[in-house]
Amino acid sequence: GVISATHYIGGGLTAFQLIPKRPLDSLGLGVAFSWLNQDLMPRSHEFMFQAYYQAHIIYDLYLQPVITYIPNPGAS
Fold first, then answer.
1. Across the strands, what pairs with 7?
2. Residue 23, CA distances (Å) to 43, 55, 63, 75 in order
């Protein structure tokens, strides 16, 4: 296969116990930046931001909405 990204840097943070009496919930934020293979992709780079909230419902059941924002997608 061919790789669409030539370089990548990214990271994120996760926080726990932000709401009293909800010790199993968590919140996370992450960012990623990729330099793209110009032979395959129309753009030279791509940035992505993602956030989630994981809510403990009951036992081992969680609800996790996620939002992802990519202002300049590599593939148009």
1. 35
2. 42, 10, 14, 40
pLDDT at 1: 64
Which pLDDT belongs to residue 20?
Answer: 93
Two tokens at 16?
A: 């726990």
Ranges of residues in the chain with a pLDDT under 70 are 1, 76
Q: What is the C-alpha to C-alpha distance for residues 48 and 54, in angstroms, rounded to an integer?
A: 20
CB 51 within 8 A of CB 31: no
Alpha-carbon separation of residue 60 from 23, 30, 57, 75 (angstroms) = 13, 24, 8, 37
